[in-house]
Every structure is written in structure tokens, then in C-alpha cells.
Amino acid sequence: MYRLKALFGKLLRFNPKRMWSRLRIKTKMITGAILLLALAVLISYSVSYWIFKNSLIKNIEEYSIDINNNKIKLIENYFSDMDMLAYTIGYSNWIQQAIIQREFINIYERYQVEKNTKHFLNCMSQINDGIGIMIVSKENVKYTNSGFGELNQSYSMENEYWYNEFSEHGRVIEPDSAQNYLLSKDRYPSVSLIYSFKNYLSLEIIGTLVFDINKSKFDELLASDMHQYNTVVLDKHNRFVYKDIDVENLIEVFTSNINTEKNETKVIYHSIGGSMYIIAGGSVDNTGWKIYSIFPYSQVEKEMMDSWKVIIVAMIPVLILLVMTVAYYSYKVTVPILTIKEAMSQIRNNNLGVQLDNPYEDEIGELVDGFNEMSASIVTLIKENKSMALLHKEAELAMLQQKVNPHFLYNTLEIINGLIMQDKKREAANICEILGEMFRYNLREDRYVKLEEELEYIKKYLAIVKYRTPNVYISLDYDKDILGMRVLKFILQPLVENSIKHGFGNRRGEFCLTITVTREERDIVFVVMDNGAGIDKKDLDSIITMLKSISQEEMTEEEKMHIGIRNIYKRLVLEYGNRFSFNIYSEKHRGTRIEIRIPEENGGFIQDV
Description:
Beta-Lactamase, 5-stranded antiparallel beta sheet, alpha+beta, elongated
């Protein structure tokens, strides 16, 4: 009892408005969307089901009537054609002469008349689906088409049950002909259509015309394109003419419930064999027959499944309205958050310093203020880091350039000392002059120089080299149209020095040193090649490994032997990043080839002042 009271108290204190205000934005949006969707589905389903149910029943009834009327039309047209055919045959000159003039002509002429009459009837039969045709005169003389069957010469129509109706109306339809006019009755099931015809001069009845129609013709006429429809045909005496469903015990249902009038088709619902059917019935004017089209009600369920598209179409406007409502609701709630998200995407794409307007005074406003402060702080920090990185880079470049000079100076002083010791003062003075020009070039603080200036520096360097190693053959080749191109200062001298020091060393013989500078597409290519000692594969792999780990601060003793190559490579990394290539090709005792490829667009041309 206590628990029930507590639960009842909670229900009394329940405040939906307060609970809704405590929900988070996402929860509110999801809850609202679910409620709207449920309401939309409920309304749409109810309306669509009501519309669909009534529409489907009406459509099936109308379609059943159309199907049945079409069958009635086909039967009417067919028997109208038979009436016209009977008129054409009975009042043709062939038949009139064969009957009227028979008693006035000789045996030979009778033979010719019978022959011509049979030929005429054969033609009429062939052009009318092979129906059987028989002519009987008042004198009981019979004419038939070929294939009609062997006639019973003693047959008299006066003995038939329908003779009185025939005598009164001059036309009768026998739906299930007994074929008493034939000796053999094993022919196809047929419908007999019997007419009387007159002398077209005296208008006196002179004979009877019989059409024997195969019942398969009615399969052709009454077969529906919609296979789920069955057909039953009764004559005016309520006898079955045609049926493709077992309804032997339902004649009373048809005749009592569908009392058809002229040009009117009615619809009823009735159970047949435990299954419900829709029955549409109507009468044929020129035969008195009644035609019934029977549609199983179970097909209605199938039609309902196939017609769910109607319900879907009916729900589309509601769903569209729902989507628009939810979208608008979501927009109003989430637009400030999405604005901050877009601004953060701009910062991610390096569009720094983004600032947002802040018309909000709630938690969203605090979030926008925090974003603006963060954006400004990022810009300040990036500027500070960029300045520090630039200072570090410039200091490292200056240090790397200075690492080249002491080694070169030491080698040159050795040459000058040797010349003085050999009392070659003029040559020593010449080297001192060249050395002074080189140091003036070296003292310039330019990071970039013209390619022409760099090549002049190399020529001076090689002039000094020739004093020490006179057996070196030097080839310097370059494209003249790129002499004004700016290049990184001291890009070649360490490589040339490395070739002379490690390639030639103390070896004897003539040595070749080739230096080429060319333009290939959008790149400037520097090649330094010698025929010196070369590098074995193990040492070459070690050098390549050293270059790949260029970011390491400490060098091994082996790396210090290749400090010139290392310094050049590191300067290229600092200057061009990954937009250059540095390749070494070497074979022991055959020489070495070093190729540097830098992008042309990073340079350009230096104009003379």
C-alpha cells in the first residue's frame, strides 16, 4: 500500500513541461521527430486505408462490369454476324434456285445445281471458321457443306421440342444440340443455330437453314485476358451454354439474385465452394442468353498488396511536411553550433584568425566567446613559432656555410706553402689573389646567387686545384640561357672538393672531372662526375643511410668523412623540403656520379642592378 501511495504521489507531481525543459537539445529533437513521425504515419495510414479500400472495391466492381459487358458485346456481335450470314445464304440466288426450280429441271441439271450449291456452302463455311451448314427444303431435300457428316434422311424437325418456338419466331438457338439430323453423333460438341427462310418473290417459307457451331468458338470469344475471371453462360431457359467453373448448383443464385434487364449489368457477392466471389451478370439482346463473369474475392487481397503504392503516394506529402518541420526545428536549435563547426573547419584548412559574431547570451554565447579567444591565440602562437623557426633555420644555414670554408682554406694554404717552398712566388701570389676573390664571394651574405657567379667561383676553385693536382682533366659544361638563374650559394664546391679528395686521393695517372649544369623541363640539374676510386657498395649504402637520417644531430666517425655531401644535402632539405632529388651513382675503381635536381620555380632569374 505504501508503494502504491508513493507511486500515486509521483504521478501527481509529474510536470511534463518541466521535464521537457530539462531534456538536452539532441533528446528534444529526437523525441519531437519520433512523435511527429508517429502522428504522421497514423493519420496517413488511416486516411490512405479508407481511400484505398473504397477505391479498390469500386474499381473491381467497375472492372468486372466492363469485363462482362465486353463478353456480352462479343456474343452479340458474333450472333449478329451469324444472322447476316443466314440472310446472305438463305436469300442467295444459289439457294433460291436450288429449292424453287428443283421440280422444274431434269436430273442432269439437278446434279449441277446440287454440285454448285455444295460448293457455295463450302465457301461460306471456310470463310466463317469452318462452321457446319445445312439447308433443308420443305420437301425435306437436304444440302450440306463437305464434312458436315452423314445425314439422317428420315429426320424431321417437327419432332424437336423447340419446333413450336421455331415455327413462331423463325429462329431458334439450341445450346447443346442433340444433332438428331446426323446418323453418327460422335462429332464435336456444338451449338445449333436454326433459321427459316422464304421465297424472295412470294415471301412463302421454303426451307430451313442450320448452322452447326463448334463450342470451342465460345472458348475463344469468352476467354478473358484476366485469367482470374471465370465465365458462365445460360440460355433463356436457364440451361448452361458455357462454363469454366463448377457452378451446377448455383443456377438459382444467378437467376434470382441477378435479374438482369436490357443493357444493364449488375454485381453481387456470393460464396461458391466456401470461397467468396464477385459476380457481374448481364443479358445478350439478340439471343436471350445471360452472361456472368465471376471474380474470386481472394484476388482482392492480392490487389490490395499490389496497390500499396497508393498508400505510399498518399503518405509522401505528410512525410515531406514532417521532414520540413524537423529540418526547420533542427536548424533553429543547432545553427549556432553548426556555425562554430564551420569556423573550426576553416581553421583546420589554414584559414586562421576566424572570428564569429556573438548575438547569444546563453551557453552558446559563452561557447562562441571561447572559440574567438582560441582562434586569436592560435594565430599569435603560429606567428611566434614561425619567427623562431625562421631564426633557427637562418642560423643553421649560416653555420653550414661556414663549415665549408675552414676545410677549403686549409687545403689552399697547403698549396701556397708548397709553392713557396718550391720558390714559385708568382704562382703563390696568383693563388693568393684568386683566394682573396673567393673569400670576398664567400663573405657575401646572400643565400642565393646567379648560376654564373657560382660557376665563376668553381672556376677559381678549380684553378687552385690544378696547382696541386696538375694531372686532372676538368670539363665544365652548362646551358648559357640559365646563367641568370638564381641558385643556392655553394651548391657545387663541396661536391667538387669531395671528388678530388676522395676520388683521386694519392692515385697516379690522369683523372677526369666533369661538371654539367642543364635545364630539364622545369628542373635545374647539377652533375659532378669523376673517374676516381669510386665507392664500394657497402660504403655507398652507408652514405645513403646517412643522408636518409639527416635530421640526427650527432654524426659517426664515418659520416664525418663525408661532411661535404652531408652539409650540401642538409642545406637542400632545409631549403627545398621534399621538392628536390639527390642521387649518388658509384662503382669501385670506376668512378662516381652525383646528381642534384632542384625545381626551377623556386628560383627564377636575378636581374643585374
